[in-house]
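#structure-requests
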Amino acid sequence: MRHIVLSGISQQVLKELEHNKVKTIEIRSPHNFLSALETDVGDIVFLTATSFGDVRPGTTGIIARIREKQVAMHRIVHKNMDFYEEAEVQIARLQLEMKGYSRVRRAECCALGEATVVEADEVLFFEGR
């Protein structure tokens, strides 16, 4: 099955999703933000701790359904004695519901500005490999 990838997700976040079954995550990294923009509520996504460039056949992760999606702008202010700096950052907030575990069968490399997509198979615990 084809899934959009959210890569480089911390092990802590993956464990919390695995334990609680529902978790809201905030996406700020550019490659994951572009992937999140391509998704809709109800889509199944593939999450992995593996970094963006290292996702390849055999990479394992979690598949989760998007329950809610928000895109918002955050204003960040840095101020000290000498200067005042202001920046705006767009973020995506996704509420995810864990569906199971998966392993990448085929990774599709993406062009700059596009979502990363993989073909992945659900991993069942009784499979012996």
